[in-house]
Design a protein that fits this description.
Elements (H helix, E strand, L loop, with lengths): L1 E6 L8 H14 L3 E10 L1 H12 L7 E5 L5 E9 H11 L3 H16 L7 H16 L2
Parallel strand pairs: 1-2, 2-4
Antiparallel strand pairs: 3-4
Helix pairs in contact: 3-4, 4-5
């Protein structure tokens, strides 16, 4: 089940059904089953506070993923800064919607076990993001 919440930002009018179906399809292709996933859209300051309080990081980021997966069930909370998504979309010369979808699926792929700390991991992550975006 997908839940969408907003903290310190405007409602994006996303379709929980559309996003949920897409995410579920990606998770199934990774041979997992979707459980409870919450997408929390927020502003930079809210996400910075989450970053400081929970990860001891003092910098802005576009997404923080909290993983609650177990026994093949994908579950977690994705905190996404709408302001970072807007800035990244400009930087990468893509639409806000395209970048938002990329960030969402990036978090989902983390829940499926993909990492992006090394250049090799980042390359695999980008390939998986691209494959998933084609399913939307």
């Amino acid at each position: 089940m997908i839940d969408i919440a907003y903290e310190s930002t405007s409602d994006l009018n996303l379709s929980e059904e559309t996003i949920g179906t897409w995410i579920s399809k990606v998770i199934e292709l990774e041979n997992f089953e979707m459980s409870d996933i919450t997408l929390v859209f927020c502003n930079d300051e809210f996400l910075l506070k989450v970053n400081q309080d929970h990860l001891d990081h003092d910098f802005y980021t576009d997404i923080i993923t909290f993983d609650y997966c177990s026994d093949g069930l994908v579950s977690g909370d994705l905190f996404i800064s709408v302001e970072r998504v807007i800035e990244n979309a400009k930087y990468f010369s893509v639409t806000f919607e395209q970048e938002l979808h990329r960030v969402i699926i990036h978090g989902i792929l983390h829940l499926c076990g993909y990492l992006d700390k090394t250049p090799e991991e980042e390359l695999v992550m980008r390939e998986k993001e691209s494959e998933a975006l084609l399913l939307l």
